Amino acid sequence: LIRYRPGTASIPHIDRYAELMKKGQEYYKGFHKDKIKRLWITLTEPKMGHALFVENEVAYNLKKGSVLTFPSDVVHAGCNVGHEDRFILTVTGYYG
Q: Roughly how many angstroms between the first and final C-alpha of the chain, as a whole number?
């Protein structure tokens, strides 16, 4: 669960899943980053200033409960440049 307070943002980044990769490789020799899937779920109604940037695309005005996913090797960032708190939930898993 992530809380973005007004005036906050995550810097553009690529998810590395370092801890998940370490633990996964301990238990399963065939564990590979390409099989990791992250769901990005908005928990608040859309408000001015709430946005998710995925490379050159922008997701905004997303209804509460919207679920997005994108490849782990793309640059992305989130922000809340509005006036109300923004909550998102990320769920990370592995599919084989």
A: 25
Residue found under tokens 């408000």: 47
Residues ≥6 apart with Cβ < 8 Å to 18: none
- The pLDDT tens digits for 44-59 are 999 999 999 999 999 9
Token couple for 37:
């899937």
DSSP string, 33-77: GGGEEEEEEE-S---TTEEEEETTEEEESPPTT-EE---TTS-EE
CA–CA separation, 53 and 77 (whole Å): 5
CB-based contact 15:40 (threshold 8 Å): no
Q: Rounded to an integer, what distance in angstroms lies between the CA atom of residue 95 and that of residue 78?
A: 25
Write out the H or E segment, with its range, that includes residue 20.
helix 18-27
Distance between CA atoms of residues 87 and 80, nearest Å: 10
Amino acid at 81: V
